[in-house]
Design brief:
This protein has 11 helices and 56 strands. With 934 residues, the protein is mostly beta strands. The structure holds 1-methylethyl 1-thio-beta-D-galactopyranoside (IPT). InterPro entries: B-gal_small/dom_5, Bact_Beta-galactosidase, Beta-gal/glucu_dom_sf, Gal_mutarotase_sf_dom, Galactose-bd-like_sf, GH, GH-type_carb-bd, Glyco_hydro_2.
């Protein structure tokens, strides 16, 4: 046993790979409650456990499919690229957690052959039926089948015994950036193969110039039926089916058919389409494709990679509702049901093989299995098992050899095999251009993408970009501009879809999402595992909301008239209804629908706007394109795209009469110059603040900016009041704000002027002093005010409703919004700066009784309101650790530095950097008493 566990061969006793399909032949699911025993070492297995007479009555019960680590056996372990065991291929340590599974089942009465199928077991398993050893297999995310015809007796009880090891030679090929989670994590079934049935078949459904051709190759005699096309033909025959609607991600037309043998009817879901690289451009049905894609790992916060059908459907629906069109199945073939969903709902799939040897990068790729021919059978086996299983899915438009496996002859062999076996699909591999039909890169900067776009060669895709870790990514809009500008740049796949946070509890029972190091791992990759566009519970993060807007398939802009540009590749605009609303200082004053002529894919049209009433204040017209009727993935009314235009600038306020001081308005400390109260309000502060709790894109992974900031001392600025003096009726406070050990500073001068009853006007001027290091931006520039905790609601007029930052603000629209303070927080798995609302004109932070602090900006400002300090946010390691204080902290920002995606990729683009330079800011602060207090 131990020798095969650490040998180079991929399996023993398994059947040749074949297509996954559904038919009317019976299948018995063996999912459910299995007897289970776990041991921490390969040496502590139960003797005789595979024998039918073995007494397992004292064993625990474990659900199949599942990961044992998520049911109390061993623990989840996260490493990014380093192997979690000594690198000495193909050997693994004796500390090799092992799970033994037993199931007694009653064999159904069916004739023909019987096959035992495992859809996924991590990482090495040996199978016995009634004590007979059937064989063993590796390749965790690939199916393995055993022929049990000779052993299974209809109606009799049988004992299935499976021994699974966490580590094996196979683990060297499975070094993906994710949790190490083991066990039988996908379905187990007993499949009937009636006499005369087909075991495997390949559907070739081609499309060219409006016409379809169909051929289904089968290993036996069969007929192909597609009633809606009038097809009734022999398998193997090339059928000209005439005019068909092609399949594409936007219009996933499937034709239902059947493959009929003497003993079985197999369901066919046929999509006619042609994938081709033409003149350096990747096309589907002759049309250039722009991937609006994501990298999807299979993940659920309680189930790990043992995802349910509902989890898979949730992903697909969320993707479709966020305007995504493509998925890279990073970095292994998904559960086969996911591909059925992609066929049906319409997503292009880059189906990636279960191969990653990233840990060899630390040895400069010396000893990499990809270049060692002893591993060749394992590489080819994995490729064949993926291609054969998934070959009949129209959604799969490219094969991918794997991820981060260096270069080597084994990858070249996989590539050659795939080209030979399936010439209809291009092959992708990022690590070695000689094994790839497209030019694929990860995390290339905007400048480099631009340069590649100007060049010639293979179609260019970013198989990973815009690292969505924590707050971010920034710069999505700028990437999309390049994809739209250069024909060669065919989009990409954001890294990644979901945060792999595991739901867990602290000592006091409070729930939080665990990441690397939270499960006792002494060697781990920390929170680098939480870098998705949706939170672990699949709540969309602001990054996904931004991506949805950036990749929207219609663009609504303004010239003289409304311009509707259709960026769809296939669809015209007939599925959309266009609605408009007019707001006056954020309040809706008129609305209607707009008649927009149907625009073909790629076209655009100008539309006359309705006559709009005059607004008294700032007027904004919003036009949104919503689904006119239900689709399979969203209901009528779902907003797909929108645009906004300012139809009336904010009227310039009449110059205020000379401000008059009123007793009881602002109370300023005569020594510090700080605010100590305003009217009836306990509001304090207004100290200048440059610090933000570093985001992952400042501090994690490859990001170094936070370290520079801390080195300069921007996280510990001190304040000194140099003067508090009267100037007419104004009070002028001169301060110097600077870090310890440094000579540079910011001079901040506050000018407080009475502004009528209960109001004060603050004008703040900030001037850098001394030698600030060149090219280091400030994290933020703002002032912080504090209020009692009961002021926990915010109404603002500005951009919203979600958080926004300089390079991630496409999805923020101008409006009037209302949120509770708690709703303003974005619960990043690892706490960091969040919740900033941008371009705020006015805000009211108030209590339930309607009293509160109104803030009116002379110009727009940034707004952040939270129940904790920046230091609290910086200190916390999990969102659940944050404890509300008895104050509410209101930050009014002059500006924030952008987000970038430097945790893995480029930093903030120059246009979104917060330079150290003179700045000015002015707001009026007003106390508003309770509405019902008389
Ligand atoms: C890249 C990996 O392909 C991906 O799996 C993930 O680990 C990502 O990094 C970071 O989250 S590889 C890296 C060397 C760019």
């Amino acid at each position: 046993m131990t020798s095969s566990l650490t040998g180079y061969a991929p399996s023993e006793g398994t059947l040749p790979p074949r297509a996954a399909f559904a038919s009317d032949a019976p299948v018995l699911s063996l999912n459910g409650a299995w007897r289970f025993r776990w041991s921490p070492s390969v040496h502590e297995v139960a003797e005789g456990f595979e024998e039918p007479w073995f007494d397992d009555s004292a064993w625990a019960i474990l659900p199949v499919p599942s990961h044992w680590q998520l049911h109390g056996y061993g623990a989840p372990w996260y490493t990014n690229s380093p192997y979690p065991f000594p690198v000495d291929p193909p050997h693994v340590p004796d500390e090799n957690p092992t799970g033994e599974y037993r199931l007694t089942f009653r064999a159904p009465s069916w004739s023909g052959r019987t096959i035992l199928r495992f859809d996924g077991v991590d990482s090495f398993f040996t199978v016995w039926l009634d004590g007979h050893r059937l064989g063993w297999a590796t390749g965790s995310r690939l199916p393995s089948e055993f022929d049990v015809t000779e052993l299974v007796r209809p109606g009799a009880d049988h004992v299935l015994a499976v021994r699974v090891h966490q580590w094996s030679a196979g683990s060297y090929l499975e070094d993906q950036d994710m949790w190490w989670l083991s066990g039988i994590f996908r379905d187990v079934s007993l499949v009937a193969r009636p006499v005369g049935s087909a075991d495997d078949f390949a559907v070739h459904a081609d499309y060219d110039g409006g016409l379809g051709t169909l051929r289904v190759d089968v290993d036996g005699a069969a007929r192909v039926l597609v009633p809606s096309l009038g097809v009734d033909a022999a398998a193997g025959e090339e059928i000209a089916v005439g005019p068909v609607e092609p399949w594409s991600a936007e219009s996933p037309r499937l034709y239902d058919g059947e493959l009929v043998t003497e003993s079985e009817r197999i369901r066919l879901r046929i999509g006619f389409r042609r994938v081709e690289i033409r003149d350096g451009v990747l096309t589907v049905n002759g049309t250039r494709v722009l991937f609006r894609g994501v990298n999807r790992h299979e993940f659920h916060p309680d189930r790990g990679r043992a995802v349910t059908r509902q989890d898979m459907l949730d992903d697909v629906l969320l993707m479709k509702r966020h305007n995504l069109t493509a998925v890279r199945t990073s970095h292994y073939p998904p559960h086969p049901y996911f591909l059925e969903l992609c066929d049906e709902y319409g997503l292009y799939v880059v189906d990636e093989c279960d191969v990653e040897t990233h840990g060899f990068v630390y040895e400069d790729w010396r000893g990499n299995p990809s270049g060692d021919e002893r591993w060749r059978p394992a590489y080819l086996d994995r490729m064949a098992r993926m291609v054969e299983r998934d070959k009949n899915h129209p959604s799969v438009i490219m094969w991918s050899l794997g991820n981060e496996a260096g270069a080597g002859a084994n990858l070249a062999a996989m590539y050659a095999w795939a080209k030979e076996r399936d010439p209809s699909r291009p092959v992708h591999y990022e690590g070695d251009p000689s094994c790839s039909d497209v030019y694929s890169r990860m995390y290339a900067s905007h400048a480099e993408v631009d340069e590649i776009g100007r060049g010639e060669g293979k179609p260019f895709v970013l198989c990973e970009y815009a690292h969505a870790m924590g707050n971010g990514p920034g710069g999505l809009r700028d990437y999309q501009d390049l994809f739209e500008r250069h024909e060669r740049c065919q989009g990409g796949f954001v890294w990644e879809w979901i945060d792999h946070g595991i739901r867990t509890r602290d000592a006091s029972g409070r729930e939080y999402y665990g990441y690397g190091g939270d499960f006792g791992e002494r060697f781990h990759g920390g929170n680098f595992v939480a870098d998705g566009l949706v939170f672990p519970d699949r709540t969309p993060s602001p990054g996904l909301v931004e991506l949805k807007k950036v990749v929207e398939p219609l663009r609504l802009t303004w010239g003289e008239r409304l311009i509707v540009a259709n960026l769809h590749e296939v669809l015209d605009t007939s599925r959309y209804a266009f609605r408009w609303t007019l707001t006056d200082d954020g309040a809706e004053v008129a609305s209607g629908t707009l008649a927009v002529p149907v625009v073909a894919a790629g076209g655009q049209v100008d539309v006359e706007l309705p006559a709009l009433p005059e607004t008294a204040g700032e007027g904004w017209l919003t036009v949104s394109a919503v689904l006119a009727a239900d689709t399979p993935w969203a209901a009528a009314g779902h907003e797909v795209a929108w645009g906004q235009v300012c139809v009336r600038e904010a009227p310039v306020a009449a110059p205020a009469a000379a401000p008059v001081g009123s007793p009881g308005a602002a109370r300023l400390d005569p020594v510090t110059g700080r605010l100590a109260g305003l009217g009836g309000l306990d509001v304090t502060g207004a100290a200048l603040d440059v610090w933000r709790a570093p985001i992952d894109n400042d501090a994690s992974g490859m990001a170094t900016l936070a370290a520079t900031w801390r080195d300069l001392g921007l996280d510990r600025m001190t304040h000194r009041t140099d003067a508090v003096r009267a100037d007419g009726d104004a009070l002028v406070v001169e301060t110097r704000v600077a870090p310890a050990a440094r000579t540079f500073a910011l001079r901040a001068v506050y000018r407080w002027t009475p502004a009528g009853d209960d109001a004060v006007h603050l004008a703040l001027g900030v001037t850098p002093e001394g030698d600030w290091p060149a090219d280091v931006p400030l994290p933020r520039l703002g002032v912080v005010l504090e209020l009692p905790a009961r002021y926990d609601r915010v109404t603002w007029f500005g951009c919203g409703p979600g958080e926004a930052y300089p390079d991630s603000r496409t999805a923020a629209r101008v409006g009037r919004f209302h949120r509770g303070v708690d709703e303003l927080q974005t619960p990043y798995v690892y706490p960091q700066e969040n919740g900033h609302r941008t371009d705020v004109r006015s805000a009211f932070v108030h209590a339930a009784d309607g009293s509160g602090l109104a803030v009116d900006g002379a110009a727009v400002f940034g707004l952040t309101v939270r129940r904790w300090t920046t230091a609290d946010l910086e200190e916390a390691r999990h969102h659940a650790e944050l404890r509300p204080r008895d104050r509410v902290f209101v930050t009014l920002d002059l500006a924030q530095h952008g987000l970038g995606s430097a945790s893995c990729g480029p930093g903030t683009l120059p246009a979104y950097r917060l330079a150290v330079e003179p700045a000015e800011f002015a707001v009026t602060l007003r106390y508003r008493p309770a509405v019902n207090s008389g």
